[in-house]
C-alpha cells in the first residue's frame, strides 16, 4: 500500500518560515482534504512536496513508501509515483499533449518497459472520452491556449494516464463551473482504490461534495490545527473559520 508520510515539516519561502511543523500521513485507499483560510501555507505544502526550488525545507522528514522523498529530484518523485498537478510544465512549445503524456508515462515505467504506441493511444482515447475531453485535444500542443477549465481537465487526464500511487491536487476546483467540476470529480473518483492515495487542497467545501474525503484537516498559520471527518468540512462551510481561530486562540 502506498504511503506518504510527512513528519514535523518546516519550510521557508524567501527566508520566511511558512510551514511550521506539518504532520500528515496519506495511505493508499484514503482521501484526505486540507482546507484553510487563504495564505496559511496550503500551496506551500504542495510546492514543498513537489520539490519546487523556491521552497526550502528547513527541517522535518517526508517519506514515500519508506524512502526519503526530500532526497529525490522532481523527476524521481514522479517516477516513484507522486503526482502533483503543477509538476508538469504549463507550456512546452512544440510537444503535443499526447506525446508529452507518453514520455512521462514511459519515464515512470522505465527502460525496456515502454508502453506500445498503439496501446497508449487506445487507452488515452478511452480516458479522454470518460473525462468528456475532445479527442482533438490530444494532438494540441501542451497547454498552449488551453482555457482554465481545459487545463484542469488536462491535469486530471495526466493523472489518470500516469496512475500515481499518491496524488496531490491543489485547488482543482478553482474557476470550474458545476458541470466541469462534476467531470473532474468523476475522473478523480475513478482512480480511487487501495493502490491510490489522494490529498486534495481546497478553500471551499463544494469540491468535497463530489470527491468525498475520508479525513479533513484544517491548516492555519502553517500547521494542521484540527482533523476530522467530512462533517468538519460541513461545519466550516456553515460557520466559517473564525470560531475555530477563537477556540484555538489564533489571531491573524
Ligand atoms: P494558501 O495556499 O494556503 O493560500 P500559500 O502557501 O500560497 O497559502 O501562501 C502562504 C504564505 O507564503 C503567504 O504569506 C504567501 O505570501 C507566502 N508565499 C507563498 N509562495 C510564495 C512565493 N513563491 N514567494 C513569496 N511568498 C510566497
Ligand atoms: Mg491562496
Ligand atoms: Mg493555495
Compile the SSE list and pairings.
Blueprint: E1 3-13, E2 16-27, E3 31-35, H1 42-50, E4 55-64, E5 67-68, H2 74-79, E6 82-84, H3 97-109, H4 117-130, H5 148-162, E7 166-170, H6 178-191, E8 197-201, H7 207-210, E9 215-220, E10 223-228, H8 230-239, H9 242-248
Parallel strand pairs: 3-8, 3-9, 6-7, 7-8
Antiparallel strand pairs: 1-2, 1-4, 4-5, 9-10
Helix pairs in contact: 5-6
Bound molecules: adenosine-5'-diphosphate and magnesium ion (2 copies).
CATH hierarchy, class of the domain at 3-91 and 163-248: Alpha Beta
The largest sheet, given as strand count, sense and whether it forms a barrel, is:
6 strands, mixed
Any low-confidence stretches, pLDDT <50, length ≥5? none
| Average pLDDT, all residues | 90
Side-by-side strand order of the widest sheet: 6-7-8-3-9-10
Number of helices: 9
CATH topology category name of the domain at 3-91 and 163-248 = Rossmann fold
Can you describe this structure?
The chain has 252 residues and is α/β, with parallel strands linked by helices. It has a domain at 3-91 and 163-248: P-loop containing nucleotide triphosphate hydrolases (Rossmann fold), CATH 3.40.50. The protein is built from nine helices and ten strands. It has helices at residues 42-50, 74-79, 97-109, 117-130, 148-162, 178-191, 207-210, 230-239, 242-248; strands at 3-13, 16-27, 31-35, 55-64, 67-68, 82-84, 166-170, 197-201, 215-220, 223-228. Strands 6-7-8-3-9-10 form a six-stranded mixed β-sheet, with helices on both faces. A hairpin with a 2-residue loop joins β1 (3-13) and β2 (16-27). α5 runs parallel beside α6. The relative contact order is 0.18. Bound molecules: adenosine-5'-diphosphate and magnesium ion (2 copies). One magnesium ion is lined by residues 42-43, 171.
Amino acid at each position: 500500500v502506498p504511503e506518504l508520510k510527512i513528519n514535523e515539516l518546516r519550510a521557508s519561502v524567501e527566508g520566511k518560515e511558512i510551514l511550521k511543523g506539518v504532520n500528515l500521513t496519506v495511505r493508499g485507499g484514503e482521501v484526505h482534504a486540507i482546507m484553510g483560510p487563504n495564505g496559511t501555507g496550503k500551496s506551500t505544502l504542495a510546492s514543498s512536496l513537489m520539490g519546487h526550488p523556491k521552497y526550502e525545507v528547513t527541517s522535518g522528514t517526508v517519506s514515500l513508501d519508506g524512502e526519503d522523498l526530500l532526497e529525490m529530484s522532481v523527476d524521481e518523485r514522479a517516477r516513484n509515483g507522486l503526482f502533483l498537478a503543477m509538476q508538469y510544465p504549463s507550456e512546452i512549445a512544440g510537444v503535443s499533449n499526447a506525446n508529452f503524456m507518453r514520455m512521462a508515462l514511459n519515464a515512470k515505467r522505465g527502460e525496456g518497459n515502454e508502453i506500445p504506441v498503439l496501446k497508449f493511444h487506445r487507452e488515452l482515447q478511452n480516458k479522454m472520452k470518460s473525462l468528456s475531453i475532445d479527442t482533438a485535444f490530444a494532438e494540441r500542443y501542451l497547454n498552449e491556449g488551453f482555457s482554465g477549465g481545459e487545463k484542469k481537465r488536462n491535469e486530471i487526464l495526466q493523472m489518470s494516464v500516469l496512475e500515481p500511487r499518491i496524488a496531490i491536487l491543489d485547488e482543482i476546483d478553482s474557476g470550474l463551473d458545476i458541470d466541469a467540476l462534476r467531470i473532474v470529480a468523476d475522473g478523480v473518483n475513478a482512480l480511487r482504490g487501495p493502490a491510490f492515495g489522494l490529498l486534495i487542497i481546497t478553500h471551499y467545501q463544494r469540491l468535497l461534495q463530489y470527491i468525498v474525503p475520508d479525513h479533513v484537516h484544517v491548516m492555519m498559520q502553517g500547521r494542521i490545527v484540527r482533523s476530522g471527518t467530512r462533517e468538519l468540512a460541513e461545519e466550516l462551510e456553515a460557520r466559517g473559520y473564525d470560531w475555530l481561530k477563537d477556540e484555538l486562540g489564533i489571531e491573524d
